[in-house]
Design goal:
The chain has 683 residues and is of the alpha/beta class. The chain has 26 helices and 19 strands. Helices cover 44% and strands 14% of the residues. An eight-stranded parallel β-sheet has the order 12-9-8-17-16-15-14-13. Strands 1, 2, 3, 4, 5, 6 and 7 form a seven-stranded mixed β-sheet that branches. It has a two-stranded antiparallel sheet with strand order 10-11. The structure holds acetamide.
């Protein structure tokens, strides 16, 4: 009996804990959600007396973060802070204490505690990085009522689940200027991400200045590359935010640009190498049998590695199909001579040589999961990207890498360029329910969202990265059981909006693109369309990689549309409610959307047409017609067979992709139509 009582008490405490965590998640818009949070009744009013002190005050990262914090706080609250800068020799009402200054690396401690009381706030951390993570949490706690902005009373103890929480940006397919990268680094830091993986080279461009091999930037970049000074500046900028920078030089495949500059490194004599303008996997490949190739890479890496203080160096290694190796007699003979049976063996030979070069330069080699071959030493770090879905269920290359003894990072499931929903990415857990020993688990360093840039330019890249990456950041930071999708979506809404403070353009550039499309006319009708359309998914935009080239326009309707289209999610939810219970309030909600879309076409037809908006006419008109009939149907609770047929035909039209978007209310319209047929069809 005693035992039973004890079990009951423990269960009550535990379920009480869960309930209170859920209630807290209702109240606070923290992302990533912290490891432990408790409320207290205090309220710290944000007024002109807010001051910050930092101990030790050493002009380092925390001081910069403190200044930045005050700037963002005053922007957010419109409170005039009288004592702007961190105080010297005096305790501020926000007091930040840390023990050591970090040299960034995977061992770094990022934990912190945060306590908000009525008149004081204390942030404590072992390292300066922990302290700046705590400041970001505090900023996210900013609340207001009618009269005041305030920080609610809480105490938080927080630390990350994974040490590697990254974002990869591909600057080869489309060059991204430094200011684009800096604003994204700011956004990463705001959600506690700590690795910027800089994909610097690919078939479409070599994006970094080389003094040793200047033809690389002169002939392989279209003039779009980073100078050495810019690279140093960016790395320092990231370091200040507690973000490591891992460069990637993708070899031996994805090498068209390098080979345009130095064809003598190529595997196929006489091949007409050129910078690639399309997207995909191409044949040009470095020749792994020539000493010159290793001499070249050693010289290049010796020049480049001092710019990147991080221990890790990514050599790519993906998608080499070895076609040019197969076509070269010399390479075939080399393989025979060295008993290298397959191209995988040959690539491993190449990778091992590269690892030696990099080790000499003090770097650890990292590569995409193709480098994980039986002979590859477990000192290499495996970046898992292949076999999404079925790969993950079976454990994927991440789990097998960890089991084989490799350190590993997951991107499989976090390919944000596939244009899948935030829910899709959020529900991918790096470990899931894989059965791993503690040691195997510890080899899973974390994950990276990957922003491949075939279809993005500086105008659109932010809306392809954010806000979904904030939810991925939570997956990497927060405990595994923080996985409630609705709660995440609620918090993400707020976090997304605050990213604008940091200059992220994911929201505002929709209107910039639509204004451009209309030559500055009223864009209301196009906004309505954009809110139910999403860019085609999983690479079905740009089929075969040949619909778009490097210099194609990327300011089309599809570029204005984003994943998780707002009105579509809302309508899909409301229509489901209505189908489950067709009471009047539920009907009114659905009718309101249908009416908007029915009338939207009246505004669309008023636009002076041009070749950019004309292709949207059919979408606008069909949406209007289907909405009109469904509106009438639900209003009158009656539909004729003729109208039912018409609705079905219109839905079929909407089901086809328009101008590289999909109309993401189609499934719901089908369900609604089936419901109308069942409930309202008149004979
Ligand atoms: C990759 O997506 N080719 C790593």
């Amino acid at each position: 009996m005693k035992k039973l009582v004890l079990v009951f008490i423990i269960c009550s405490i535990y379920s009480g804990h869960l309930v209170s965590q859920n209630m807290l998640a209702e109240t606070y818009n923290l992302m990533p959600w912290p490891k432990a949070i408790e409320e207290n009744p205090a309220k710290f009013i944000i007024n002109s007396d807010v001051t910050i002190s930092i101990n030790p005050d050493n002009n380092g990262r925390v001081r910069n973060a403190g200044i930045n914090f005050l700037r963002r706080l005053s922007t957010r609250t419109a409170v005039f802070l009288d004592k702007g800068f961190p105080l010297k020799n005096e305790k501020g009402n926000i007091h930040v204490v840390f023990d050591t200054v970090s040299i960034l690396g995977v061992e770094n401690d990022e934990s912190y505690s945060l306590a908000v009381n009525d008149t004081s706030i204390n942030i404590k951390a072992k390292t300066d990085i922990g302290a700046i993570r705590g400041l970001e949490t505090l900023l996210q706690l900013t609340h207001n009522d009618e009269t005041n902005y305030f920080f609610p009373g809480v105490s938080i103890n927080d630390e990350p689940r994974f040490v590697w929480r990254g974002l990869m940006i591909d600057v080869a397919r489309h060059f991204q200027p430094i200011d684009v990268l800096k604003r994204n680094l700011d956004a990463m830091a705001s959600v506690k991400m700590n690795v910027f993986h800089w994909h610097l080279t690919d078939d479409q461009g070599f994006r970094i200045e080389s003094k040793v091999y200047p033809k690389l930037h002169e002939l392989a970049s279209d003039g779009l590359y980073y100078t050495r000074a810019q690279v140093k500046d960016l790395v320092a900028y990231a370091d200040n935010l507690g973000i490591r920078v891992v460069p990637e030089f993708d070899v031996p495949g994805h090498a068209s640009a390098i080979l345009n500059a130095y064809p003598e490194l190529g595997s196929k004599d006489g091949y007409d190498y050129a910078i690639e303008r399309f997207s995909g996997v191409f044949d040009p490949t470095l020749n792994p049998t020539k000493d010159f190739t290793y001499e070249f890479l050693e010289n290049l890496f010796s020049e480049i590695t001092p710019l990147f203080p991080d221990n890790y160096f990514h050599i790519g290694g993906d998608e080499n199909e070895g076609k040019h190796w197969d076509e070269s007699q010399d390479i075939q003979e080399f393989k025979k001579h060295h008993s290298l049976k397959t191209n995988h063996n040959l690539q491993t030979y190449f990778n091992i040589k590269l690892e030696k070069i990099l080790n000499k330069l003090g770097k650890k080699l990292m590569g995409w999961d193709e480098i994980m071959t039986p002979n590859m030493p477990t000192t290499a770090v495996i970046h898992s990207w292949r076999g999404e879905n079925e790969g993950l269920k079976k454990g994927g290359s991440l789990i097998s890498a960890a089991k084989k003894g490799y350190h590993t990072v997951l991107s499989n499931g976090y390919y944000i360029d596939r244009m899948l929903s935030v829910e899709h990415h959020y529900t991918v857990d790096p470990i899931g329910d894989a059965q791993l020993t503690e040691q195997e688990q510890s080899r899973i360093l974390g994950g990276e969202a990957t922003m491949w840039s075939e279809l993005v330019t500086p105008l659109t890249i932010d809306s392809r990265i954010w806000p979904r990456t904030a939810a991925i950041a939570e997956r990497f930071w927060s405990p595994q059981n923080i996985n409630n999708v609705n709660d995440m979506k609620k918090r993400l809404k707020r976090v997304s909006f605050h990213l604008e403070e940091l200059g992220i353009t994911h929201i505002k550039n929709r209107d910039v693109i639509l204004r451009g499309m209309t030559n500055n006319q009223d864009i209301t009708s196009l906004i309505a369309l954009s809110k139910i359309c999403e860019p085609l998914k999983v690479y079905s935009r740009n089929k075969g990689g040949i619909e778009y080239k490097s210099f194609s326009p990327f300011n089309l309707f599809a570029d204005a549309c984003v994943v998780d289209a707002k009105d579509a999610s809302d309508f899909n939810h409301l229509a489901n409610n209505f189908i489950n219970d067709s009471n009047r309030p539920n009907a009114i909600q659905v009718l309101s959307y249908l009416k908007t879309w029915a009338m939207n076409h009246d505004d669309f037809v008023k636009l002076t047409k041009n070749p950019k908006i004309k292709p949207l006419q059919n979408l606008s008109k069909t949406l209007s017609e289907v909405s009109l009939i469904l509106h009438e149907t639900i209003q009158n609770k009656s539909i004729s067979a003729k109208n039912l047929n018409a609705v079905k035909n219109y839905i079929e039209i909407l089901n086809e992709p328009f101008v590289d978007v999909e109309v993401v209310i189609v499934d719901t319209l089908k369900k609604l139509t089936a419901y109308c047929e069942m409930s309202y069809l008149s004979n």
